Amino acid sequence: MKKFYLSSTDKKIGGVCGGIAEYFNIDSLLVRIVTFALIWCGTVGIWVYLLAWGLAPSDNKISK
User: Fold this and answer.
1) Are 44 and 35 in contact (CB under 8 A)?
2) Most buried of the four, 19, 28, 36, 50, by CB within 10 Å?
3) Topology in the membrane (predicted)?
4) Contact 20, 31 (CB under 8 A)
5) Which residues are CB-contacts of 11 (< 8 A; sequence separation ≥ 6)?
6) Neighbour-count burial of 32, counting CB atoms closer than 10 A to its CB (0-12 exposed, 13-18 middle, 19+ buried)
7) CA 6 – CA 14 distance, rounded (Å)
8) Nearest residue to 20 via CA among 28, 29, 12
9) Ramachandran bin of 36, using left for φ above 0, alpha for ψ from -120 to 50, beta for the remaining angles
10) pLDDT in tens, the chain (64 residues)
């Protein structure tokens, strides 16, 4: 099963958008544009981003 992790390589602030892009295998710029639009249109976007940033594990803590 695939899990969501914060990206340690493709991050600008917290790695949330990079992690979402890696999870869905899409371009991180597209995820950042959608995230910015959600934040710009209302406060729900910022709360979702902060919640994901605080609760999701970082991918650099995974032992491979």
Assistant:
1) no
2) 19
3) Single-pass membrane protein
4) yes
5) 17, 18
6) middle
7) 7
8) 28
9) alpha
10) 888 888 888 888 888 999 999 999 999 999 999 988 888 888 788 888 889 889 988 877 554 4
Dihedral sign for Cα 27, 43, 14, 52, please.
negative
61, two tokens: 């803590």
Query: CB neighbours (10 Å) of residue 22?
Result: 20
CA–CA separation, 19 vs 53, rounded Å?
10
Instruction: Record the pTM.
Output: 0.80
SS3 62: coil
